[in-house]
């Protein structure tokens, strides 16, 4: 099914419906009378001696106002009939018990897996079946501590070469939670100014060599705060540096003298595409071939074509890299989509509901992005209009019940601590469960052509999943009444920042072309 | 402290510039901040010296993820013609302490490549695998070793079998086996396919619900351009469709569905397999099994 075919369902483009965070929360319609207005009406009628006092009984009050539906806001108003709290839906068996088929032969992998299930089960089945709400304020406080604290503690020196990552993780997590991160714009520009090297690219900190990971995180952070912060990047030296780390086989070294794997290609393509860099002189020569050759016999992608194992992180990098070069429907011509689909689908385990990164490895919150984030790309590639190919409810259950730290932040699994990395990638995964992405090509967003910047990733559209629309259920919407407080913002499926900031980056690039 | 030592007197340390409004600034210890300042000064001159080597070791001890320091160190080691064996020994201890680190393994690769000798590497890798037999960096490094030193037939297959005896669910070891059997451009002869079929079915027998050998044999058959029906009997043994109570493996059901979907008159069996997966044997993947069903129905229509 082609992406140009008109949809049978009405679609709400993100830009039209998601202006800011306030619109997402239910507010009282302006026409609804307030308690004080009613009181004035009563007073007026009693003062008017000509007319008999107007009887306003509780029942007529209920009829003339909509307070019964707004009961959540005024729970103690005497006019409210008693409405018992809704019963949480029964947890489906698949999330309550061990799988039907379990081998008796024990090895370390099996013991680790059983241990994880016994660790996760009490979390996902407790509290009378209800799932905990998103601890929004606590997660916001946790992520803000990464940016606003005067200084991070000295044991975090192990992240001294990854400071652009800390900024990207915290900014993206905050923006998904509905925080306006444009207030960090000046600080982001100031932070990345000394980290940009005159020879092109960004390092992990001042005086460090330019590295594709740091450069990726810096460019995404600058794009996320908007307002032309991307203009900080020296595009000319960036392009020179990218050429200097390009390998003849199509891949990129992560830095001069550094290692090579598909992470490098994904980071480089993100930078090239967002900054609208020209790709002549063979900048992307053989890159497609390299990416394709990383698909393993299992169906997922490995770090390199050299015999590695299929892995969630590298699969996202390879797939997103291909989605920067090509519109999604082209992907099925390039790779073995049946094998990829089988492997991705097998990454979701019951009863945990969470996603794992490799065959016979454990679920981990961060694969909510690395595997979860592959799904919109694959679903669009296959033209899935009727429903999701994976179990969104399972992942929501795992995220809400097992990855939230009571003290703030999100984590790999209950026995682990929360950190900025997991907080961001679990939130991106949660966002994925609450949205549906599709692709709409325009005259610019076509397949990459030698010499031109890749434009394909700018064709993605998104809408919130709607309660009651079969096939795309997300637990808080369709199975649990009104749970707007669990909603997070839409992320872009290729770049993993807030969706609308990618549009802004596109507009920014138009301004200098 | 470097500032108190005479051999560092000539170096003017370069303090770190974090900009006026830094985000995510780290409260360095004085020791780290000072060492980094002296390192920046040496790197600015690209000095290759004993003292430069010493300071890289000091910083790596405090922060082993500092890629810039590692690459600088590699340059110094080669420029000074240091004993590469000693460098490897020093690395061993680092690798055992920091298991998830890209830089250590990249550095090791540079050193061993220069040394042009892989003696002792297998023993050290075995130590790493005792800690975590699925360590991705270590496996990548081992595959590089096999290619760089042509170790295809030098006990690799036996080592994989040893690891799979320890844990038949070690998918990294299965992946390495695939690399050994197919990664050198070898032709998959009938003899090799037979050997692999035998090895796989022995291991499936131990734990029929282990996905690794099923994925592996599917990959071998695909690479050898053989039909999946080669393993139909194995599949029906672990997933007898006429007696669903006795099903032991969802992976066997999955492959049966694939085999039957290609034969028009057995389409119903394919649908039955997928229904069993969806309802009972792998229900968390119901949407995927249903998708497979619609694909079969589409092909038939």
Automatic annotation (TrEMBL), chain A:
Q: Which GO terms describe its biological process?
A: prenylation
Domain of life, per lineage: Eukaryota
Gene3D superfamilies for the chain? 1.50.10.20
Chain spans, region Disordered = 1-33
EC number of this enzyme: 2.5.1.58
Question: Which key words are in the record?
Answer: Metal-binding, Prenyltransferase, Repeat, Transferase, Zinc
Keyword Repeat recorded: yes
Query: What's noted on cofactor binding?
Result: Binds 1 zinc ion per subunit.
Query: Tell me, what is one Gene Ontology molecular-function annotation carried by this entry?
Result: zinc ion binding
Its catalytic activity?
L-cysteinyl-[protein] + (2E,6E)-farnesyl diphosphate = S-(2E,6E)-farnesyl-L-cysteinyl-[protein] + diphosphate
Domain Prenyltransferase alpha-alpha toroid, chain residue ranges per copy? 134-497
Which cofactors? Zn(2+)
A cellular component term, taken from the record's GO annotations? protein farnesyltransferase complex
Under PANTHER family, the record lists: GERANYLGERANYL TRANSFERASE TYPE BETA SUBUNIT, PROTEIN FARNESYLTRANSFERASE SUBUNIT BETA
Q: To which protein family does this belong? A: Belongs to the protein prenyltransferase subunit beta family.
Functional note: Catalyzes the transfer of a farnesyl moiety from farnesyl diphosphate to a cysteine at the fourth position from the C-terminus of several proteins. The beta subunit is responsible for peptide-binding.
What is said about its interaction partners and assembly? Answer: Heterodimer of an alpha and a beta subunit.
Q: What is this protein called?
A: Protein farnesyltransferase subunit beta
Q: Write down the species.
A: Pyronema omphalodes (strain CBS 100304) (Pyronema confluens)
TrEMBL record, chain B:
The enzyme's first-digit EC class, named in words, is: transferase
Work out whether the entry's keyword set contains Magnesium.
yes
Q: Which GO terms describe its molecular function?
A: CAAX-protein geranylgeranyltransferase activity; protein farnesyltransferase activity
One GO cellular component term, please give it.
protein farnesyltransferase complex
* Needed cofactors: Mg(2+)
What top-level branch of life does the organism fall under?
A: Eukaryota
Swiss-Prot/TrEMBL keywords: Magnesium, Prenyltransferase, Repeat, Transferase
**Documented EC number(s):** 2.5.1.58, 2.5.1.59
Keyword Transferase attributed: yes
Per the similarity annotation, which family is this? Belongs to the protein prenyltransferase subunit alpha family.
Q: What is this protein called?
A: Protein farnesyltransferase/geranylgeranyltransferase type-1 subunit alpha
**Organism encoding this protein:** Pyronema omphalodes (strain CBS 100304)
């Amino acid at each position: 099914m082609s992406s140009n075919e008109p949809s049978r369902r009405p679609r709400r483009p993100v830009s039209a419906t998601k202006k800011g965070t306030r619109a997402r929360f239910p507010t009282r319609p302006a026409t609804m009378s307030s308690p004080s207005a009613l009181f004035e009406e009563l007073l007026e009628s009693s003062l008017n001696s000509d007319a008999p006092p107007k009887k306003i009984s509780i029942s007529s009050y209920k009829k003339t106002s909509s307070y019964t539906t707004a009961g959540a806001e005024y729970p103690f108003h005497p006019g409210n009939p008693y409405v018992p709290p809704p019963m949480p839906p029964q947890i489906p068996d698949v999330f309550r018990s061990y799988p039907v088929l379990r081998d008796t032969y024990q090895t370390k992998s099996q013991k680790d897996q059983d241990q994880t299930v016994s660790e996760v089960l009490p979390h996902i089945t407790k509290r009378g079946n209800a799932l905990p709400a998103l601890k929004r304020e606590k997660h916001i406080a946790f992520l803000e501590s990464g940016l606003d604290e005067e200084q991070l503690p000295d044991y975090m020196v192990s992240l001294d070469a990854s400071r652009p990552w800390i900024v990207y993780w915290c900014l993206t997590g905050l923006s998904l939670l509905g925080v306006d991160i444009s207030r960090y714009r000046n600080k982001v520009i100031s932070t990345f100014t000394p980290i940009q090297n005159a020879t092109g690219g960004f390092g992990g900190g001042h005086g460090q060599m330019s590295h594709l990971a740091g450069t990726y995180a810096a460019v995404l952070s600058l794009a996320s705060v908007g307002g032309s912060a991307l203009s900080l990047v020296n595009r000319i030296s960036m392009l020179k540096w990218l050429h200097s780390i390009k390998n003849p086989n199509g891949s990129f070294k992560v830095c001069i003298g550094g290692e090579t794997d598909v992470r490098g290609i994904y980071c480089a393509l993100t930078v090239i595409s967002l900054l609208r860099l020209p790709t002549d002189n063979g900048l992307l020569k053989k890159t497609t071939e390299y990416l394709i050759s990383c698909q393993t016999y299992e169906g997922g992608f490995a770090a390199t074509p050299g015999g590695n194992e299929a892995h969630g992180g590298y699969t996202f990098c390879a797939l997103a890299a291909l989605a920067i070069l090509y519109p999604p429907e082209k992907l099925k011509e390039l790779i073995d989509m049946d094998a990829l689909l089988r492997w991705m689908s097998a990454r979701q385990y019951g009863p945990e509901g969470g996603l794992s990164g490799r065959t016979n490895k454990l679920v981990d919150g961060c694969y909510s992005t690395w595997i979860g984030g592959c799904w919109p790309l694959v679903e669009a590639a296959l033209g899935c209009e009727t429903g999701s190919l994976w179990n969104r409810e399972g992942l929501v259950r795992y995220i809400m019940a097992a990855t939230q730290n009571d003290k703030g932040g999100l984590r790999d699994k209950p026995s682990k601590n929360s950190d900025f990395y997991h907080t961001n990638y679990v939130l991106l995964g949660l966002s994925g469960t609450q949205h549906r992405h599709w692709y709409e090509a325009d005259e610019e967003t076509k397949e990459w052509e030698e010499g031109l910047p890749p434009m394909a990733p700018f064709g993605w559209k998104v809408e919130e999943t709607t309660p009651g629309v079969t096939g795309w259920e997300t637990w808080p919407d369709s199975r649990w009444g009104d749970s707007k407080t669990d909603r997070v913002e839409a992320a872009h499926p290729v770049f993993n920042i807030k969706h609308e900031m990618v549009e802004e980056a596109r507009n920014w690039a138009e301004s200098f072309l | 402290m470097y500032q108190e030592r005479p051999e560092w007197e000539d170096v003017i340390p370069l303090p770190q510039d974090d900009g006026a409004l830094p985000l995510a600034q780290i409260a360095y210890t004085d020791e780290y901040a000072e060492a980094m300042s002296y390192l920046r000064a040496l790197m600015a001159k690209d000095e290759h010296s004993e003292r430069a080597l010493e300071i890289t070791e000091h910083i790596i001890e405090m922060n082993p993820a500092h890629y810039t320091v590692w690459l600088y160190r590699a340059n110094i080691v080669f420029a000074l013609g240091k004993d590469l064996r000693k460098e490897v020994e020093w690395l061993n201890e680092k690798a055992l302490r920091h298991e998830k680190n890209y830089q250590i393994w990249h550095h090791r690769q540079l050193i061993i490549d220069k040394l042009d000798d892989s003696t002792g590497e297998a023993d050290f890798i075995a130590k790493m695998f005792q800690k975590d037999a699925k360590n991705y960096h270590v496996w990548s490094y081992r595959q590089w070793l096999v290619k760089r030193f042509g170790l295809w037939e030098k006990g690799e297959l036996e080592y994989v079998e040893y690891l799979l005896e320890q844990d038949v669910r070690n998918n990294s070891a299965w992946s390495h086996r695939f690399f050994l059997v197919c990664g050198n451009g070898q032709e998959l002869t009938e003899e090799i396919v037979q050997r692999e079929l035998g090895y796989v079915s022995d291991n499936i027998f131990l734990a029929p619900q282990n996905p690794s050998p099923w994925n592996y044999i599917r990959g071998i058959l695909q690479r050898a351009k053989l039909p999946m029906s080669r393993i139909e009997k194995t599949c029906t043994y672990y997933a007898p469709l006429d007696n669903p109570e006795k099903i032991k493996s969802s992976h066997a059901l999955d492959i049966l569905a694939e085999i039957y979907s290609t034969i028009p008159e057995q389409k119903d069996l394919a649908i039955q397999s997928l229904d069993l997966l969806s309802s009972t044997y792998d229900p968390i993947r119901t949407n995927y099994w249903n998708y497979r069903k619609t694909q079969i129905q589409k092909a038939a229509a």
